[in-house]
Write a structure and sequence with these properties.
Oligomer: heterodimer
Largest sheet of chain A: 7 strands, mixed
Number of helices of chain A: 0
Structural class of chain B: mainly beta
Radius of gyration of chain B: 13 Å
Largest interface: A-B, 22 and 19 residues
Helix content of chain A: under 10%
Strand content of chain A: over 45%
Structural class of chain A: mainly beta
Radius of gyration of chain A: 13 Å
Chain lengths: 109, 123
């Protein structure tokens, strides 16, 4: 099973600042099979980024994804109040053993 | 507009059973696989089970294999998850999610999610 480790666990930032979230895989992941979700409190997850770097429909361009191999990054530039949430990465290269990272919480400082 | 709506959650004793349902609309149901993903209170996401658009392929996480069974009724655009031999550690919100990949035979990633249904296993 491919283990995804997200860091940091919690990021405390102010609106307008930038956030950098890391997702590290225990073995190499084809970037086509790496996605990011956003989950706001009390809501279902929402697909943000697929193929490691492509924004899903309706996702603002302040969200960007990058990376390859075992290291992937989600960057949120100019945090808006609605961006404070928990973010998860997911790999499906090892499907059906698809796995999620444990999440990074972006909270208001 | 794609919609996914789960139902069937509740409180059940350890060893008991429950049947979850997921009604989907707004897309060609037989073209897409569907998964169940769960989230224990205050915890992260865990993929549980997948069924392909045709129903020919099904997969389960090791943690539920042999206890849970997924099925789909294409005449009603509905997916079911039968939960048997429930354990305290199965307590979670269960989300139904549409797979992104057209005609996918395995779970990939999920572009539409329902709001989930809560399953509590407690004596």
């Amino acid at each position: 099973e491919i283990v995804l480790t997200q860091s940091p666990g919690t990021l405390s930032l102010s609106p307008g600042e930038s956030a950098t979230l890391s997702c590290r895989a225990s073995q190499s992941v084809d970037s086509n099979y790496l996605v990011w979700y956003q989950q706001k409190s009390g809501q279902a997850p929402r697909l943000l980024i697929y193929g490691a770097s492509t924004r899903a429909t309706g996702i603002p361009d302040r969200f960007s994804g990058s990376g390859s191999g075992t290291d992937f990054t989600l960057t949120i530039s100019r945090l808006e109040p609605e961006d404070f949430a928990v973010y998860y990465c997911q790999q499906s290269v090892d499907s059906p053993r698809t796995t999620f990272g444990q999440g990074t919480k972006v909270e208001i400082k | 507009e794609v919609q996914v709506l789960e139902s069937g959650g509740g409180v059940v004793q350890p060893g008991g059973s429950l049947r979850l349902s997921c009604a989907a609309s707004g897309f060609t149901f037989t073209n897409f696989g569907m998964s169940w993903v769960r989230q224990a209170p205050g915890k992260g996401l865990e993929w549980v089970s997948f069924i392909s658009g045709s129903g020919a392929s099904t997969y389960y996480a090791d943690s539920v294999k042999g206890r849970f069974a997924i099925s789909r009724d294409s005449s009603k655009n509905t997916v079911h998850l039968q939960l048997n031999s429930l354990r305290v550690e199965d307590t979670a919100r269960y989300y139904c999610a549409k797979d992104w990949v057209l005609q996918g035979a395995r779970p990939y990633y999920f572009d539409y999610w329902g709001q989930g249904t809560l399953v509590t296993v407690s004596s």
